[in-house]
Design goal:
CATH class of the largest domain in chain B: Alpha Beta
Number of helices of chain B: 21
Largest sheet of chain B: 5 strands, mixed
Strand content of chain C: under 5%
Shape of chain C: flat
Number of domains of chain C: 2
CATH topology of the largest domain in chain C: MetI-like fold
Chains: A mainly alpha, B alpha/beta, C mainly alpha
Oligomer: heterotrimer
Number of domains of chain B: 2
Structural class of chain B: alpha/beta
Distance between the termini of chain B: 36 Å
CATH architecture of the largest domain in chain B: 3-Layer(aba) Sandwich
CATH topology of the largest domain in chain B: D-Maltodextrin-Binding Protein, domain 2
Chain lengths: ~300, ~425, ~325
């Protein structure tokens, strides 16, 4: 376990004390890089706070000089029109939650169990299945759309939450199984062997030994899935049924309308609002993300 | 599907016994921008007046936004009540699979073919002699839009046709005006077809697009078209290309750009800016060269609903199909949409001068040329778009190569 | 590792008494594990193999918007390989892919090394580098389209400051547009690579640094010659994740350039999706996706055999 907690501490060459030119250069590079990474966020936020006339004449890097207005945010959330309904992003938010929560839970559990079975309970052909999964991650998922429609229609779940959960479970598999497999492989095997000798079965070992040791990698998997599922447009709208259109549908409608006046400020506010959940997840759990990756992906 | 029955039953229960006729009908479409949704709102309003309820399901972007969703849902057995869809070959697969409702009985009963401006509009909806969709408007790319302000700057008269316009380019450049305002991406795709029909003439247009005659592509007439296209390419500076066609409209009104070939929906932009035809801008249908315009339209399809669907819902489909082409709906919808109605027996006195010009052309028996989108499969259309995009972006792409590539696409076209 | 399966049986002395038959081995032994792994097996068999075979099969048909066409042999492939757009798309992906892979890996690693120098505010910096990964390709494309737009963005701003000859028109420049794509793509992806690399660095025994210092090896050589080879595992994982992302690049291109100007930033995934949904030529789209898959196969299979193959005991 020590290797997991230790990852928060830098391991690099020990820096010399105090301020020397080298440190200044390092901080300089890091700060410049950080500015490059922050630039788009800055543009998004300032634009969303400007009025339309100011956007038309001004340049995009200027801070809002005239009145700072939150009107675009209010409009994006409550009244931007997508087709005939002018309810903004708000209704889609809960649909996205309804899709993301169960899809994340189920896909992560399935992948965790699969990774565990692959590492600790090898069966004939398990490497073959794993290889297929890895290759699967290289297929553009859109290609699978029609066959997946037919499969879910056969299962009589097309147009329900179950269909979208299934689809996200399927397409989350390759990377999640890769992460879980690597992680479980890095855990000390003695624990597993000892438990087997004690007569513990598949599930008991998984629940009592593996899961408690695997919280970091679960965090990584959850972060990846929440981000991916929340940002997904196509599968949500095709499989989840009309009553469950996710937020990205409305975002797409607001942002991609090619005709008429483009309300850039509302577009930007809508964009940030839609990205808020995955962003929040990263801000809150970024530390866990690094820990989990450190513990899991390294021993590949 | 179950949903429909449940919703219909709920509606019936809530509205009492008189509501036997009423049902909810989900309608999918990709009309999400301001002017478009105002137009579709007219359909919804009139449909709701029949006692039914229009359940709006808008998905921006026909290609990757709406199309996959619409086809998937019909295929997966969760169809919407009605949907906008690209006409022609795209729908054939769904029709063959028996998933689209045959509208022939309604068309016969209502006498659609008698009042449609051009029966040819149904060609794209017809499969095996039966009608499967309802064209609701006519859109045309065949317009040269000209900026009054720009020609004032250049000190020359506003051109009366394409040739005069081309001749005015040097003077415009000298005056610091962009001769041809262009928006990035798809705004380019409609232009070659316009040149083909107007510079090349309707006969050449039909030979290429309908007969798929590759020799016509190799003819001197077509070379003229290709050269006009190349000339346009050479006058457009890539650095001057703007992101959206709405920006082009603004360029024209400000006199920063002099002309543009674009679909009639650009008028929506002019209207938003409060501009009037003949004052701030001018329009030349058929580029001022021909008296015919090429046009196709938007159309609605009605999927076959799953077994067990309440009769109310099917009746609601019928009601909507009839309503879309009714006089009242046609006037209300098209004035908002900026497109031409599919019937000419209605009062459009409130239409602006450009639209009136178009309606006059439409009233003549041969006024309407079927659109390239109708004549070619969307597959062929995509190949032509790809070619045109590449040609336009690469100034070293020669006219000879262009003609050869074009001919080989037409040879394989179906 | 490879002997876990056997040791599993060893854990049950009762069962170990009778000689396990073949059928017993396949179906009964560790039955719970097999049931638990069955969702994965089903997904692999039905979706990743079944659907792939499905798509390969229909690439030999003249299917239009629906998968119901007649068999036409290699016709779709002949057309694919004579299509200029496909050639452009494939070349673009190759160029973009190589640059993007090298660039994200190198920048990601360098950032990770810098982050590993006992920085103050490490959490803050890490979050800044990582947040783009939470945004979708569509959003990334949209924002960078703005910034790189010559008339709205950086170019006009810098010109406004007085440097009137400043040009930054990559997004509208046929020759440079791939690098515009690279800027946005790198912005989106390097943070994730950095975190993976940082994790790799942190998993390395601190003693190595002491030893290197004692031997007087300069820090950069320690990184290059000692640390990097030790990070093999994390690099492999990163390559898989980054590589699959590059091959599937679609959203970003659509939002940033939509393939333009002309066809100069088209990519294969966009070809597939365009022909599938816009042009209604499923056969052609699936032929293109099959070729993509074959290309990935050819590159990856030997490598996967070595890297993840069963012989490699750890």
């Amino acid at each position: 376990m020590t290797n997991i907690t230790a990852v928060d501490e830098p391991s690099g060459p020990r820096p010399s004390k105090g301020f020397n030119p080298k440190r200044i250069v390092i901080y300089g590079i890091i700060i410049v890089a950080a500015m490059y990474y922050l630039l788009p966020l800055y543009v998004m936020i300032t634009t969303s706070l400007k009025g339309l006339p100011e956007i038309r004449v001004g340049n995009i890097f200027a801070p809002p000089l005239e009145i700072i207005t939150i009107e675009p945010w209010v409009k994006a959330w409550t009244s931007a029109c997508t087709g005939l309904t002018c309810e903004g992003l708000a209704p889609g938010f809960w649909n996205s939650v309804k899709i993301t929560v169960p899809s994340t839970i189920i896909s992560v559990l399935v992948a965790a169990v699969s990774g565990y079975a692959l590492v600790n309970w090898r069966f004939k052909g398990s490497e073959f299945f794993f290889t297929c999964l890895l290759l699967g991650s290289f297929i553009p998922y859109q290609v699978m759309l029609y066959p997946m429609v037919m499969i879910t229609a056969q299962l009589k779940i097309f147009g329900t939450l179950w269909a979208v959960i299934l689809v996200h479970t399927v397409f989350g598999m390759p990377i999640l199984v890769l992460l879980f497999r690597n992680y479980f492989a890095s855990l000390p095997q003695e624990l597993f062997k000892a438990a087997r000798v004690d007569g513990a079965g598949f599930w008991r070992i998984f629940i009592q030994i593996m899961v408690p040791m695997s919280l970091p990698i679960f965090a990584v998997a959850i972060i990846l899935q929440v981000t991916g599922i929340w940002n997904d447009f196509l599968f949500g709208v095709v499989f989840a049924g009309t009553q469950n259109y996710p937020m990205t549908v409305q975002l797409n409608n607001i942002v991609n309308s090619t005709q008429g006046v483009r309300e850039y400020n509302v577009n930007m506010a809508a964009t940030i609002l839609t990205a808020a959940v995955p962003l929040l997840v990263y801000f809150v759990s970024g530390k866990w993300f690094v820990r989990g990756i450190a513990a899991g992906a390294v021993k590949g | 599907m179950k949903k429909f029955t449940v919703v219909a039953a709920m509606a019936a229960a809530m509205m009492g016994s008189t509501a036997a006729m009423a049902a909810d009908l989900e309608v999918t479409h990709w009309w999400t921008s301001g002017g478009e949704s105002a137009a579709v709102a007219e359909f919804a309003r009139l449909f709701n007046e029949t006692g039914n309820t229009w359940v709006d399901s808008a998905l921006a972007g026909s290609g990757t936004g709406a199309n996959p969703v619409i086809i998937s849902r019909i295929l997966g057995g969760d169809p919407m009540g009605a949907t906008q869809m690209n006409t022609g070959r795209d729908a054939e697969g769904l029709i063959e699979a028996g998933l689209i409702r045959d509208l022939t009985p309604i068309a016969d009963e209502e006498g659609w073919k008698d009042f449609y401006a051009d029966p040819g509009l149904f060609d794209a909806c017809t499969y095996d002699g039966k009608i499967y969709c309802v064209p609701v408007n006519i859109h045309s790319w065949h317009w040269l839009w000209l900026s009054t302000a720009a020609y004032e700057k250049a000190g020359t008269a506003v051109p009366k046709d394409w040739n005069e316009y081309v001749a005015s380019w040097p003077a415009l450049r000298e005056a610091g005006v962009v001769p041809f305002g262009l928006a990035a991406g798809w705004a380019l795709n409609g232009i070659p077809g316009v040149l083909l029909a107007d510079v090349g003439g309707p006969d050449l247009y039909m030979k290429v697009n309908q007969d798929h005659d590759a020799e016509a592509v190799r003819s001197p007439e077509f070379r003229k078209v290709a050269e006009a296209w190349a000339a346009l390419r050479d006058v457009v500076d890539p650095a001057e290309v703007v992101p959206q066609f709405g920006d082009v409209a603004n360029q024209l009104l400000a006199g920063e750009a002099a002309g543009n070939i674009h679909g009639d929906w650009i008028q929506g932009e002019f209207a938003v800016a409060g501009a009037t035809p003949g004052v701030e801008y001018d329009c030349l249908p058929g580029l001022g060269l021909t008296n015919r315009i090429e046009g196709g339209g938007d159309a609605f399809y009605f999927p076959v609903l799953p077994e067990g669907t309440a009769q109310d819902v099917i009746d609601a489909q019928t009601a909507l199909a009839k309503l879309l082409v009714s006089k009242e709906a046609q006037v209300a919808f098209n004035l908002k949409k900026g497109s031409m109605p599919i019937r000419t027996d209605i009062d459009l006195s409130t239409a602006n001068d450009c639209m009136k010009k178009a309606i006059t052309i439409l009233e003549s028996p041969e006024g309407l040329l079927p659109s390239g989108e109708t004549l070619n499969s969307s597959d062929t259309q995509q190949q032509l778009d790809d070619l045109n995009q590449e040609f336009f972006a690469d100034k070293s792409f020669s006219v000879d190569d262009y003609i050869e590539e074009y001919a080989s696409i037409i040879e394989q076209a179906d | 590792m490879t002997d876990i399966g056997r040791s599993g049986a060893m854990g049950r002395p009762v069962e170990a008494d009778k000689p396990p038959g073949l059928l017993y081995n396949i179906f009964v032994r560790n039955i719970t594990a097999k049931i638990a792994a069955s969702p994965m097996v089903a997904i692999v068999l039905i979706v990743f193999i079944g659907c792939t075979l499905w798509s390969v099969w229909f690439s030999f048909t003249d299917s239009r918007s629906l998968p119901n066409g007649d068999f036409v042999g290699w016709a779709q492939y002949e057309r694919l390989f004579s299509a200029r757009r496909w050639k452009i798309s494939a070349t673009n992906l190759l160029t973009y892919g190589i640059f993007s892979l090298v660039f994200t890996m190198v920048v990601g690693f360098l950032l990770a090394v810098l982050m590993d120098q006992k920085l103050r505010f490490e959490d803050g910096f890490r979050t800044i580098f990582l947040y783009p990964f939470a945004l979708s390709g569509i959003v990334t494309g949209l924002v960078w389209q703005w910034i790189m737009n010559p008339t709205l963005g950086l170019q006009s701003t810098i010109r406004g400051l007085g440097w009137t000859s400043f040009t930054f028109d990559w997004i509208t420049n046929t020759d440079m547009v791939l690098y515009a794509l690279l800027i946005a793509g790198t912005w989106h992806g390097t943070g994730f690579v950095m975190v993976l690399m940082l994790a790799g660095l942190r998993s390395i025994d601190g003693e190595i640094w002491k030893a290197a210092r004692v031997d007087g090896i300069p820090a950069w050589r320690t990184y290059l010659q000692i640390v990097l080879p030790m990070m093999r595992g994390v690099i492999v994982t990163t390559l898989v994740i980054v590589g699959s992302g590059i091959v599937r690049t679609y959203d970003l291109v659509v939002a940033l350039t939509n393939g333009g100007p002309g066809l100069s930033s088209e990519v294969p995934a966009k070809y597939v999706i365009n022909y599938m949904f816009t042009a209604g030529n499923l056969g052609q789209a699936l032929a293109a996706s099959t070729i993509m898959l074959v290309a990935v196969f050819v590159i990856l299979i030997p490598w996967i055999m070595i890297e993840f193959g069963p012989k490699k005991a750890r």
